[in-house]
Amino acid sequence: MVRKLSWAFGVLVGVMLTAMGVTGNLFGAPIFAHLRELHPYLFGLPWPIWFTEGAIASLALAGVVATCRTRSFVAALKVGALSGLIGSSILFVTGMGMTIAFHDAMMKDPGNVHEYELSSPTPPTEEQLSDFIYSDALEGSVTMMFEGPLVGTILAAIGGGGMLLILAFWNRSPTRPVRSSGENAFQRDAGSAPRLAIIP
């Protein structure tokens, strides 16, 4: 179960992170210039932020689902860590592949030139900008591979811990429904009058 959930949420996180990289690095490139003119509002939306938040929510949800399925907080932590590792590994492959495939387009992106100028007082040469794009992509991808399992563990702990509290409250609730084969059943607590529990 842990392996199955880890792959499911890991792939989901990887897709979210890849979409974040595509929208953040290519939407400003010349290859989308015509589409940006046709749909300026669509390309002006904060897609990278939304996809990043989607990846974060997916890791927290991984802890929730793992806790529901296994009733184990440790399993939730494992699912979160493995999901973060799988997702960040997918980002490494797709991110470096995107950088190699669309290198020329990214060279013409004003955003990359501006980012380089933040760390250097002089405008970059073509060779310097090329090295900067490759090194930035590699550094970011490798960093994510180390941060992914840690972030996944933390977020899964939050989601799994919250679900454990909900399950504990649900199990202690004296009015929770009684499952039976009939349409309704009576539930009696010690020292209390019978309560009618409606079974859907």
Give a brief description.
With 200 residues, this protein is mainly alpha-helical. 75% of the residues lie in helices and 4% in strands.
Which terms would index this structure?
mainly alpha; two-stranded antiparallel ribbon; 8 helices; 75% helix; 4% strand; elongated
As residue ranges, the low-confidence spans are 180-200
Global shape: elongated
- Structural class assignment: mainly alpha
- What does the main sheet amount to? 2 strands, antiparallel
N-to-C span: 29 Å
Mean pLDDT: 82
What features would you describe in this structure?
The chain is mainly α. It has one domain (2-198). It is built from eight helices and two strands. It has helices at 2-25, 33-38, 40-44, 47-70, 73-101, 103-107, 110-119, 126-172, and strands at residues 184-187, 195-198. The protein has a two-stranded antiparallel ribbon. Strand 1 (184-187) and strand 2 form a beta hairpin. Residues 180-200 have low confidence and may be disordered.
Describe the secondary structure blueprint for this structure.
Blueprint: H1 2-25, H2 33-38, H3 40-44, H4 47-70, H5 73-101, H6 103-107, H7 110-119, H8 126-172, E1 184-187, E2 195-198
Helix pairs in contact: 1-4, 1-5, 4-5, 4-8, 5-8
